[in-house]
Design goal:
The complex is a heterodimer of chains A (310) and B (511). The longest helix of chain A has 31 residues. Chain A contains twelve helices and no strands. Helix content of chain A is 71%, strand content 0%. Chain A has one domain: ABC transporter involved in vitamin B12 uptake, BtuC (Orthogonal Bundle). In chain B, strand 11 and strand 12 form a beta hairpin. Chain B has 511 residues and is of the alpha/beta class. The longest helix of chain B has 16 residues. Chain B starts with 5 loop residues before the first strand and ends in a 14-residue tail after the last helix. Chain B folds into three domains: 232 residues, 3-Layer(aba) Sandwich (Rossmann fold); 183 residues, Rossmann fold (3-Layer(aba) Sandwich); 69 residues, no CATH class. The chains are: A mainly alpha (310), B alpha/beta (511). Chains A and B meet through helix 7 and helix 8 of A and helix 2 and helix 3 of B.
């Protein structure tokens, strides 16, 4: 393998490895833009992974699996919405509880599915002439359909947030829900909507692992990717494009470790497995220094909204 | 007069433990400026929040153009042409002016078209005299400009009634005058305005009609021609007010505080104070006028050791306290009553007893080696609450349930109990009604008679004139002028506060 093909294959692998994180990060981004912190991402991804896998095995169709993952992710997120929006519970506690719940439930549901293959996993579908573009072609356009969909999702979310009225209101929801409310926007219904949509995307992130990336089910197979996605939203400063870059950076470190192992470099695999998490800490330190400790987080992130509070 | 535009009939609104509105009637005609007068807690804001759809009334009817409406949310009120500007502006700070205004559009397109909106904003500005840069971010604007954005947004919604909750509380005198002329221009175009206030002079100057609330009930309603200040006070307060206490002429003692050419950075990392000097003697009240954000907080925090002093020095009784840590400065007898009572002065979720303990918990009287002496602490709290007339159901209540006046009395009780040599008070009467304001002022005057030096930072010129021995103006981190309080010219103070005054002789930087 020549150096250039090695680089290309590492870059392409970075995108594949980054895609589950990207979906989860976009879901969390949507939720946090609405002013709700959801730390249940890891648990929702696991639920998405296992329910997507089970339905794909049972029906033999990965699309049904994907739909099931979205549904399950949305359903778990709905619990978070009820707790934090309606009951105004502490968002951190609720999210942590969801992660513990999702981890346990997915392990229980998936027990008898360990080691079974997916009948028809999402496979690589090169995008015709686009793959002929030097370097970029093989890196960007030799993937499965979910990767292509994630490109579109980033563009769509960016346009939605910054170029549309509903997007403007979504941002207002996270910055100052009282302002959105006084202008006649339904803060409660919209927060429900974005929490559930965010959960659905986290579910897709999980299903990508079990239906395309692995493709198989393993207990706790997200291995902290949900947490990385949460951290990544901060690194991305709540911007979809930066979330994309960040996801691929993490994916790249993942892929690099894998390739190093394959090429026989004698580094402890435990050290290589640690790299993405170490990188997460470094990125957070770097972002905090760059922002002088003042993040441009949505102003009302994490705060429950009560219209009649005096 | 013409047929009523809005009638509120028999409105009742209860909150846990209180009736905020009790059978309130209010009638609004098209094109009038209607003042809603009352002390804090009299139910003015609650009533307007009901009309704005933010609160659901427990009883009563709202009739608009002869038809009864039930408002489930502000959206319904907006659809009926009612728009409200709250005391705390409902603007999204990181958004531009254009983005904030376009949020108010009734039937906006899916895609944002900022260019069109900007043209409309400029058009509205020309029509009503409300000029503001549509591309500016809201956090960059002054308070007066933010208020203009709110008004523009409500006009943009197509509202026929503008409700303003104490709009002048945050404005300088020139800004207030401009607001009043803008409001008149709007009513000439047929828009009605409800104006919530507790300031009599504003009612006399602006209102076509006035409705007075006290303790949740309407105590009177009258036309402009019938207005009579004494009667309004009676309706509002329910008793005749004792004349304002006059400052006692105290002998001024030696210099207590000497601030020499200090420079301090503000939160943005820019110079918040520029070579500012002042001195203050025993038993003296130095009043500092100025618009918020011109170095008030920086000055108070620099003296208390809460903000690093880059250059210059501060001496207390001749001892250098520059950049000592806050507790060392407190031990020297400095006391600080910050503008943000509930955020910085008190801990909202702690009880009254605990809040009163915060400053003297290390004293052997209240604290042993390991444990606190609960009994002594509670007795002390009970005595202070009694002495300073803090109204509370129990000493064990979290302080966040107290009204503004009681919060301020509690905070002053704690600070005065330490017998300070220097007291720094920032906006002591902001948001308080007449009764509570009088109490607070009397406490400060008693403290002065007790030889404490007081640095009084305020925006309220009447308050400054009534209490101070000398008055200086803070502008852009400097002292822009200084007058003995009995020779002060309010117009000139106003100009200095706005940064356009000429200092007449003297050395402005060396009070």
């Amino acid at each position: 393998m020549s150096d250039s093909t090695l680089v290309i294959s590492i870059l392409a692998a970075a995108i594949t490895a980054g895609t589950p994180i990207l979906y989860a990060a976009l879901g969390e981004l949507l939720t946090e833009r609405a002013g709700i912190l959801n730390l249940g991402v890891e648990g929702i991804m696991l639920i998405g992974a296992v329910s997507g896998f089970i339905i794909a095995v049972v029906t033999g169709n990965s699309w049904f699996g994907l739909a099931a993952a979205m549904f399950a992710g949305g359903a778990i997120a709905l619990i978070h919405a009820v707790l934090t929006v309606t009951l105004r519970a502490n968002q951190v506690v609720s999210g942590l509880a969801l992660t513990l719940f999702g981890t346990g439930l997915s392990g229980y549901l998936g027990k008898s599915y360990i080691g079974i293959p997916v009948p028809s996993p999402f496979t690589i579908q090169p995008l015709g002439f686009l793959t002929d573009i030097p370097v970029l072609g093989p890196v960007l356009f030799r993937h499965d359909i979910l990767v292509y969909a994630s490109y579109g999702l980033v563009v769509f979310l960016w346009l939605f947030l910054y170029r549309t009225r509903p997007g403007l209101f979504l941002r207002a929801l996270g910055e100052n829900p009282a302002a959105a409310d006084s202008l006649g926007s339904n803060v409660f219904a919209l927060r429900y909507l974005y929490i559930v949509l965010g959960g659905m995307l986290c579910g897709v992130g999980g299903a990508y692992l079990s239906l395309a990336y692995a493709p198989s089910w393993l207990e706790n197979m997200t291995a902290g990717r949900g947490w990385i996605a949460v951290a990544l939203v901060i690194f991305a400063l709540w911007n979809p494009w930066r979330a994309l870059v960040g996801s691929y950076l993490f994916g790249g470190i993942d892929a690099l470790g894998f390739h190093l192992q394959v090429s026989g470099v004698t580094v402890s695999p435990f050290f290589l497995n640690m790299l993405p998490y170490l990188f997460t800490i470094l990125v957070l330190v770097f972002v905090m220094i760059r922002q002088h400790g003042r993040l441009t987080a949505p102003g009302a992130l994490g705060l429950p909204y009560d219209r009649e509070e005096r | 007069m013409a047929t009523p535009f809005i009638q509120m009939q028999g409105i009742v609104k209860r909150f846990p433990g209180v009736i905020a509105n009790d059978q309130v009637d209010l009638t609004i005609y098209p094109g009038e400026i209607h003042a809603l007068l009352g002390e804090n807690g009299s139910g003015k804001s609650t009533l307007m929040s009901v009309l704005d759809g933010l609160y659901q009334p427990n009883a009563g009817r709202i009739i608009i153009d002869g038809e009864e409406h039930k408002f489930g949310s502000p959206r319904d009120a907006i659809a009926c042409g009612i728009g409200m500007i709250h005391q705390h502006f409902k603007l999204v700070e990181p958004f531009t002016v254009a983005e904030n205004i376009t949020m108010g559009a009734k039937n906006g397109d899916f895609w944002l078209s900022t260019e069109k909106i900007k043209q409309e904003i400029i058009g509205f500005g020309a029509k009503y005299g409300l000029h503001v840069n549509p591309n500016a971010y809201v956090w960059q604007l002054s308070v007066g400009e933010k208020q203009r954005v709110e008004i523009l947004r409500i006009l943009y919604q197509g509202s026929r009634l503008l409700i303003m909750d104490e709009p002048t509380a945050v404005l300088t005198p020139p800004e207030t005058a401009e607001l009043f002329s803008n409001l008149r221009r709007m009513t000439e175009q047929g828009c009605a305005v409800i104006f919530i206030t507790h300031k009599l002079n504003e009612v006399m100057e602006l209102a076509d009609r006035v409705t007075v609330l006290r303790a949740g009930r309407v105590t009177g309603s009258m036309e402009r021609s019938q207005l009579n200040p004494n009667q309004l006070v009676q309706l509002m307060v329910g008793r005749d007010l004792a004349g304002r206490s006059k400052p006692i002429q105290t002998e001024l003692g030696p210099v207590v505080l000497n601030v020499d050419q200090i420079e301090v950075l503000n939160d943005m990392g820019r110079l918040g104070l520029r070579a500012l000097s002042l001195s203050l003697r025993e038993g003296e009240i130095l009043g500092l006028a100025g618009v918020t954000g011109n170095g008030q907080r920086e000055l108070a925090e620099a003296i208390c050791g809460l903000r690093h002093i880059e250059k210059g020095s501060i001496h207390l009784h001749g001892e250098d306290i520059t950049n000592l840590n806050p507790s060392a400065i407190l031990d020297q007898g400095v006391s600080y009553v910050p503008e943000d009572r509930l955020g910085m002065g008190l801990v909202p979720d702690l009880t009254i007893i605990e809040n009163l303990l915060l400053k003297n918990y290390q004293q052997p009287k209240y604290s042993g080696r390991w444990l606190l002496h609960a009994k002594a602490i509670e007795e002390n709290a009970a005595a202070l609450v009694e002495k300073y007339n803090v109204k509370t159901p129990s000493l064990h209540q979290p302080v966040k349930i107290l009204s503004g006046g009681n919060l301020q009395r509690l905070l002053l009780a704690r600070e005065i109990a330490t017998i300070p040599r220097l007291m720094i008070v920032v906006y002591p009467a902001r948001g308080l009604d007449i009764g509570a304001t009088n109490d607070i002022h009397q406490l400060l005057l008693d403290l002065k008679a007790n030889h404490t030096a007081i640095l009084l930072i305020s925006e309220d010129l009447d308050e400054l004139v009534a209490l101070s021995d000398r008055i200086g103006v803070l502008f852009d981190g400097r002292l822009a002028g200084e007058f003995p309080a009995n020779e002060v010219d309010l117009d000139e103070l106003g100009l200095l506060m706005a940064g356009s005054g000429q200092t007449n002789g003297g050395e402005p930087n060396a009070i």
